[in-house]
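Anyone opening a protein record will find just a pair of labelled lines. The record below illustrates this layout.
***
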Amino acid sequence: MAESVVIALLKILGTVAAEETLRTFIRSALGKVSSLDRARARDEIDGVKRELESMVSFLRNADRVRDPNDSVAIWVKQVREEAYKIEDIIEEFMCWAAGQNHHPLSIKNYLRRLEDITKRLKRVKSSVQEVSERRKEYRFDVGEAQRLADEQARSHRLSELSSLVKHEQGMVGLQQSSHQVKKHFECAAWISVSRDTEPKDFLTSAAAQLFREEDSDADDTRSTIDSSTLAGKINDYLRPRRYVVILDNVWSAEYANAIIDAAFPDNDRGSRIVITTRMEGVASILAHHTHNLECLNSEDALTLICKKAFRRSSGRVLTEEFLHWAHRIISKCDGLPLAITAIGGLLSLQNTPEEWRRIHDSLDWNPNNNQELHRVNQVLMSSFEELPYYLRHCFLYCSMFPEGSSIRRKRLIRLWVAEGLVEERRGLTMEEVAEANLKELVFRSVLLVKETNDCGRIKSFRVHDVVRELALAMAEEERFSVVFRGSQASSRCTEARRLSIHTKDHQFSQAIRMPSLRSFSVFGAANFSQLFPRGMMTSLGFKLLRVLELNGTSIESVPNEVFDLFNLRFLGLRGTKVRELPKSLERLRNLETLDLFNTEMHSLPCKISKLQSLRHLFIFNKVEARKHRIRRFLFHGETLAGVWELKGLQTLRTISSSPEIARKIGRLTEMRSLSIMGVRSVHGGDLCASIAKMERLLRLCMVAANEPMREFLHLEILSPPPLHLQKLILIGQMEGVPQWFFSLNNLTHLWLLDSQIGESENPIQVLGSLPSLAHLTLDDAYKGRELRFPEQSFPALKVLCLSKMLRLVSVVILPGVMPGLRELYVRSCTELMEPPKGFHCLTKLQRLCLVLMPSEFIEKIRGARAAFKQVADVKHHYKGADGQWTVQLL
């Protein structure tokens, strides 16, 4: 992947970023004194740039040669090392120049540093020229490199895994049928278990799924109790219930047994615990009944590869020639689903049978002791090598997350942008380009979708364990990144450009330096002071850092040296105990994301206005969302004084409203996502005027003040509304649905809570016309007695939630309404005694969830069960006489 490194470096050399830093310094301190010196440095940069440009076309194919002893592979490695050196030289100088005080006394230092950088660039330029000449000595041209890349057997990267690897058909297929399984149980959980999963994390995940419908306070409870108490809570909850729990990818029988004994009771109610593992020893110890997943037969293998290969058919037809090569390719995959899935993603981008033949010929592997896994490895390597350069480092970056972890789409996008892994494209923001890259990696089956929203948009994903192991090896070999678990020697990290810490109790040696490090991330609630004693970050040489993620650590104050990191783009302090940031925050001029979610902070330094590169600001303190009750101090008034000068800000979540804020927020015209709470009725006019200026707004959350009672949200005069709006959350009383809702053609998700709209202003009439609406929640939103869904309304709706409409006695569904509705939730509608009229019209409904509904309503649903037998999952959640939640299957 040296091509990716060189192209990224060319982008740096081709921009005026370094020149702008120099120009600012020169204007204020040097005048015209050093123009010749500056020109000399610029000439050296241009010379290096020309040499690197001449290598790119060769690198595009030579980079695919995997034999580490091959002369071409050695040359590729040398190019990568020289590119890294140049990048370090340029960024070191930029950081130094940014730290100068722009005083005339700095002239000598500047000239000395400029002379030094010129000499270093000359040496590297000479080295690059030698490497370039060496390529000619090898007498390899682009075509030769292509031939080698296609014909060579790839290196064996994965070893010592004893069981056959299964993917897609075994794993995802089970998930697809989970609705059919769940309907036989009162509660269910699917939990991934990796080597890095702590017992508390495991139990928290289990509780989140098992208590999902009933326990509105579970999030807060889980975060404050210890593992044994939480295990006991789960055990008590499950004892009277029939449950099914999937423990996915178990690696230790002892670990699993301890968890099962503590949390999952054997209650003689037909409950089931299903364990998946790649380790035969684990299966033999834990399981009473063992099922070995078989390889796919030729028919199923052909179905799977064609499904993957023809997803984006563009008019292609499965001709005899395509079919011939499909059979030849799957014969080399030996029925291994992971291999078939990966190669199918690759074939989807090849439009002719001849290209399929070339892919087949590249799968030329040799037998070894781990035949099945080796073959998967070869297929995956072919898929990785076909990735365009702009996707390769994006893919490798995903291996830095813990094994089996759920990676949130938005978080990854912001990290990719901060790391400089995303190219600019005309007419698109960097975040939009990053999302396109993510979709392409998913389409190529390199990443697995874990969760989507109601519109099918990715919310989270994960990396298959086998794919991740391969990516980890590639990333470490190329010095792209290292994952540190504490068991390795710290010296492995010295040359890493990105470091991911997956340990809680290791201390780095004071003798280690990491001068090239660009990214430092800590996963898990690590003891930061133990990892890095005071002054340690300086001794490690973190001066070129672009990303610093300390989420969930015990850190209480940010080390002063962090604010000298000129290159820093991403500072993540989410869930830490940090109470304040110093005024020196202003020195982080390149910062793009500042994440202070759930910290102990109450205000921001006014100098935050100096951070003109800031795009995403998260300053939301804990709020019990389901009760809409503010628990802790929200940022407001003077604490936000500098924010209104951040013209490029795209995300601001969450602040407290005031007359001043309602007016000033209109300055943030680039806003994409805004959350504001404590809105008073009198703020409505100014807020509407401000929001009207946010033409690019995609997500808006507004919560009315609730002291002493929920106030009105006056939004009628909003004009023009943000036409690109996709998600809208409104919590507060409303006189009716504003007429401008008719223009929200892109709105996909809508929550109306505590709206208490009068009967004469039935919201369904307006909302039913929204063409893209996929999710609708109405919680205490309507005071009428009847909800009538008119014909042909809600054409795109997938999920409908009706809650706490205390006067509602009738729901009428006319033909053609909600043709794609999959899930219906009805909660605490205490006067609703009859099932919805026209319920049979919901032919696509898969799930009906009833919570705290009258017994009369439940009995009539039970009696009419035959009328909607197509609904696989029908449950009623209620509290018994003892106050405990019970799930009733209907």
